[in-house]
Structures
1.
Amino acid sequence: MGRMDTTIVGIGTRKGLWLARSSDRRRWELDGPHFLMSEVLSLLFDTRWETPRMVVGFRSSHWGPSLQHSDDLGATWVEHPEGSIRFPEDTDTALKATWQLVADPHDPQVVWAGTEPHALWRSEDGGETFELNRGLWDHPHRTQWGDGAGGGAIHTVLPSPTDAGSMLVAMSAGGVYNTRDGGQSWTPGNKGIHAYFMPHDEWPEFGQCVHKVARDSAQPTRLYAQNHRGVYRSDDDGVTWTSIEAGLPTNFGMTAVANPAQGDSLWLVPIASDGERIPPGAVLQVQRTDDAGATWRTQDTGLPHPSYTNVLRDAAGTDQHDEPGLYFGTRNGDVFASIDGGDSFTRIAEQLPDVLCVRAVTLQ
Amino acid sequence: MTARVVLPGLLRDLAEGAAELPVELEGPATLAEVLDTAFGPWPILASRVRDERGQIRRHVNVFVDGEDAKRAEGVQTPVGPQATVHVINAVSGG
């Protein structure tokens, strides 16, 4: 299989990492498990390296959280002997898990991590060692941030591609926070996001249960947020939000994936409701917009129904082909791929453990 | 005097295959001191057993001469100079 035309889909599950490889995105070979019996919660294919560097955040229920990287696409793995992410002694805190790993768009050595408990970290050595962002850690709201069902974590990290000092992070359950000064200070960015579960104040400054935020690929100040009941768009870089849920079968879901090849285009995977965490009408489906949420269309060709599974917040991703592949994994261990923008799907893996994260890379 | 730290099979690769690690003690010591010494050459092994605060991980049990350290004084549990310390992955998981 030539490197020039290889796509790799990393499938992080509750019991290890699998890598699906294909030269044509039709026939896939599955390699794994790596990190057997560890929850693989975060995965980065850092394409700034000549051979993309893989950085993986995983957690063993016995042996705790770890970070490892591979510079040979998963053949060998390296763990920093002193640990990649360690809370400083003065915080009297221990890392529980790394939920997000993101390459910085400006500095080729910088990688960002979001962790449980709620913290943001910056690496200047490609994800080998990280330093705690004190601006967010010392934020007066921190002690009031709650835990989502999976724990309390920074699960989304979105550096601005145009402004090196600007970044959005999102957490369950604290909502969205923004910095405009390189992470020194952080301001909640939740105006317009409803929090029905806070009856004393349903439009709070913070405390919203945001599940995932995605940045538009053409307009960097346009963002989309899938919340715990509610789908929103921001046109001011995450400060204020308006609902775009009209036309969707439900306003609940976990994931949101921007189309890397087309602005105003986004995929969601709807879930019936917070009380019924199955696909709407038991039809596993994707919802796609091409007009920034004004209208939506259902994409379910090739997806099984009836289906009673769902898709978690990071269990969907895209590759870097001109016509990007869309991949997502389910809680019952299936992984689906579409190479026609979601119009049709094929199953590329099945019978895996619960899928927690999916990321894909196209080798250039 | 030599105390012994006995490793579970799942962790032995992190100590170059050793099933147990000897720790020379001149007198009484705490469990933290014994583990620090035993795991000194293998910091990744150390991180599997204790978090960055030095606490024994939730689903790891450490027994000092048969006594569960978490039910005793935690990492401050006294360790005699000829003690046997067992590190065991707890019966948990799914």
2.
Amino acid sequence: MELGNHSRVGIVGGGPAGSMTAFFLMDLAKRIDLNIECDIFEPRNFSLTGPPGCNMCGGVVSESLVQKLAISGIPIPSDLLVDTIDAYTLHSDQGHVRIGAVSEGARIACIFRGAGPRGAEAQKPIPWRSLDGYLLDLAQQGGVNLIAERVKTIDWHDQRPRITLGNGQSFTYDLLVGAVGLNGSGISMFENLQFGYKPPRYTKAYIAELYFGSREVEQRLGQSMHIFLLNIPRLKFLALTPKGPYATLVVLGENIDQPMLEQIFQAPEMVRCLPPGWKVPVQTCLCQPRIHIGPPRQPYGDRIALVGDCSSSRLYKDGIGAAFKLAKACAYTAVVHGISKSDFQRFFAPTCHELDWDNRLGRIMFAMDSLQRPFPKLQATLLDCVRREQDDPDSPKRLSAALWDTFTGSASYRTILANAVHPSVIRDYLRTFARMACKMTTV
Amino acid sequence: MLFRRGKASLGKSFQDGETIVKQHDPPGSMYIILEGRVQIWVDDGDKEPFLVAVLGKDNVFGSVALYDGSSRISTARAIGRVRVLPVDKRGFLQWLGEDPTFALRIMLKMAERIRTLIAQLVSLRREVRELRQKVGRTRP
């Protein structure tokens, strides 16, 4: 089972995973003189602000991913970048510490998936472009046909996948790629095709674009992402990211509800980063997207593959990086090897498994973090270790690198864990803890 | 209402005429051109260095050093304002281990350059042949 001349590929979903799969499929096919047709189904208009044009995401991309994209033929133009970040600031009730970019080329780009938050359209022209819109344009430039309609049903017809639209029009394909994310109804259409696929486990995040104004963003946040290690039950990750005149609030955890958000906005560490007297506006652009926390089952079959969040992804971070990896693996398998279940099992599944296994290590790391949250002394030790690493120009800065990579998604959890449990880091941590304990006893 | 806080950008910027990499320097990063154009010069010990290529957006230079570890074989200089994305040699080799297809596009860019260089070589050979014929005709 292979793609031949005039084979047809249908992709459901024009977010980064769908657009990049389309781009790589067309690019690779051209390299081997294969003439294929590719349709991408995406009803959204990414040039719109607010929810209609947005794919709900924190909107940070590591510089290493920007480099990988550029090498792969997807250069990220400047007008996509709303801001760049060169530091992280860790806040806890034991103080705060700033971690500078661990190396040249380790900065972070801040982008908007759509045309920006609700209300941004007041400024004309809008001074940034949508990442999703740019990637979809790039796929179209490569010869992909955009069908701006919502898919109504997917079924099998003569052992080939068939897409039917609301107006009754239907399309049969040699290969169907699902890039439907976790938030729409598309995922159940693929589950109902009964090829062994089970969607990944998910939880809900809370993302809000808080309007501070450019001057306040500069004064309160600077060029740094602010991470808050607060001891609030069920809270796993809390960050405030500067993005032009906005600060993007990202809350990850279990059952994020109003009381948890009130606790967050009242925490002294958070209040220090908010403009004086600032209150959450009623019209804030916010969303509660589903985020990936567990592996899917068999995201491929004969003539079918799933990429992006509805397939394997990274735990809590770097969804675009994971989408890039899977898009490339899916396109390479389909064009070079074949489109049968066994082809995908042999050449596409290893990339999925690599992400799934790495997430297991990520879960261990987040569990370790949750264990130390209730103990102020452990948090103070962590901050002190990082502070001393930052002050020492000769330090290999392993702990800082581990924290940097955890927040940016620049490295795998395996690399992060290797840095975090390095003997020199553990030795330094224990020494610092003992010194702080002695100081407390002496006082 | 001011939307942007300043010009957000990644990579490194160079002004007109500024040297990005210098011939004979130790090997380091490879560069992807994000904005502007870059001249590639080679100094063969003659009076003046000679221009071998002018590269534009999305082109790659400094990639030879990634593979053979020898010193830089040419000098890259900015034409106008240039922004490049440096790719660290060690990082790139790690990526190759994870995903060999990263090498594909670099190989394609190198193949394009080899094609151009061969065309230049053919044209030079033709010019030399014509000059020889002219010299042969004028010699008594």
